[in-house]
Structures are given as C-alpha cells and as structure tokens.
Amino acid sequence: MKSFFTLSLACIAAVAMASNYHRGAGVPGGWTPANVDDVKMVYFSVSETETSYTPATMLRLCATEFTSAEMQVVNGINYKLHVQACTVSSAKDATPTCSCPSGTSKAYAINLLKDPNEVTKVSNIELDTPADGTPTTTPETKIGGASAPRPVTEDDKAIFTRATSDEANYASSQLARVCASEFISVSTQVVAGMNYKFTVMGCALETPPPATADCKTTCAFKPVATYEIKVFAGLDKTVRVVDVSYVVGLPALL
C-alpha cells in the first residue's frame, strides 16, 4: 500500500513537471510571455548608450510602438521585444520620446541579454517575422544592405549640412563642393556607423557652403544639376563626404 501511494505521488509530480515544461514556466531555455512595460524599461535603460550594442554594427532604432515581449532563462535572462520602429543614425536618437517620419516604421524584434551581473546588452536587432511565418525581406534585414531611396528628414539634412559645410570633412580636394537647393531622396546603409547616399539638386561652389547658406538664393544664377553625394557618419560622431557625382536619371521613391 505504501509503495502504491509513493508511486502515485511520483506520477502526479511527473505530470505536473511535464505540464510546466510544455508551458515553458520556469524551465531554462523556454521562452515565456513577459510584461511589455517591464521589458520596455529594460530596453530604454541601455538604448541610448553606444557601448550597449554588441556587435557595434547592428541597427539603432527609434521604437514607437511596443506590441509584445518574451523572456528566456539562460545564464542570465534573454528578452525579446517586438516593436514598430524606424532606423536612426546613432544610439543617442533611440530615446523614449523619439518619433518616426510617416511611412518609415517597420516591425522589428529586439533581443536583450541581462547577464548574471545585471549588465544588459542589446544582442540582436532584426526585422520581425509576421505571425503567418512569411519572411520579411527588405534591404535593411541584414547589416550592409542599403535601404531603398526615401524622403530626406530634418535629421538627415542636419548630417548632410554638417558634413558638406566643412572643408576638413571632404575625402578629396577633387570632390565638388555642392550647395543643395533641393533634397530629392536618401538611402542608408548600416556599417560600423552609417553610410548616406543623398540625391540633391544644387550648384557647385569653389568652397564648401556655410552651414547657414540659403542654397536656393546662392544657386539662383549658377548652373544647377542633380548630384549624388555620399556621406559617412561614424559611431564617434565624425562625418565625411566620401564621393560626389552627377546623376543621370533620378531614383524612384518607394
């Protein structure tokens, strides 16, 4: 009788353990739902710090909507945060109050790792996969892919102006110094920093245009052409004009 009772308890315990295992509750390695607001706080505690991103070449995001979160017990805790976001040029722009230009937000999954010493790192950022399992493929899915041309934001213009207004930022004395009277589009590429490819209308000058230049006025009596200007913005906040060329035909905005 005693052995039967002991066996019964063992069976009940085994069933309970199996039930917990299939729910992922308390089992190391199993993903379980997490409180979105809690994981959001974990993310924003590190999102504005460049050294929190490992590797340093991953995307920086302005996350504006937080849809769900998961956690996984490993040697520490993994968090996965599902968001609507747009890419930004540096961590300092990944703030709780940031905003995305209309039509630029996409679904991303942000992975965080909090190690046993309570140090949190952003361990991965990638475009999210829809619930139906259809892979999302865009040029921004992987590091090194250039995005499609898009409208130029004020932040983009600020980087362009900072780069093109200082002679020291030009990679070569042979590059045209262009005063941009109209911004047509920009595409970006995440590297160890950010590559920008601006398509602009403007006029060539003998020296770089001042940061405060009114290029519509400056170019009023000069030949105006379409230029493609490539700018590199480093993680150390430096900017560099790496190439300037004429454009034959304009890229379509998608």
Summarize the model shown.
With 254 residues, this protein is of the alpha+beta class. The protein has two domains: 29-127, Nuclear Transport Factor 2, Chain: A, CATH 3.10.450; 154-246, Nuclear Transport Factor 2, Chain: A (Roll), CATH 3.10.450.
Describe the protein in words:
The chain is of the alpha+beta class and 254 residues long. It folds into two domains: 29-127, Roll (Nuclear Transport Factor 2, Chain: A), CATH 3.10.450.10; 154-246, Nuclear Transport Factor 2, Chain: A (Roll), CATH 3.10.450. It is 18% helix and 37% strand. It is built from four helices and nine strands; from the N terminus they run αβαββββαββαββ. It has helices at 2-23, 36-44, 154-164, 215-218; strands at 31-33, 60-74, 76-88, 106-114, 120-127, 177-191, 193-205, 225-234, 239-246. The strands form two sheets. A five-stranded antiparallel β-sheet has the order 1-2-3-4-5, covered by helices on one side. The protein has a four-stranded antiparallel β-sheet with strand order 6-7-8-9. A hairpin with a 1-residue loop joins strand 6 (177-191) and strand 7 (193-205). Residues 127-151 are annotated as: Disordered. InterPro entries: Cystatin_dom, Cystatin_sf. Belongs to the cystatin family. GO terms for molecular function: cysteine-type endopeptidase inhibitor activity. Residues 1-18 form the signal peptide.
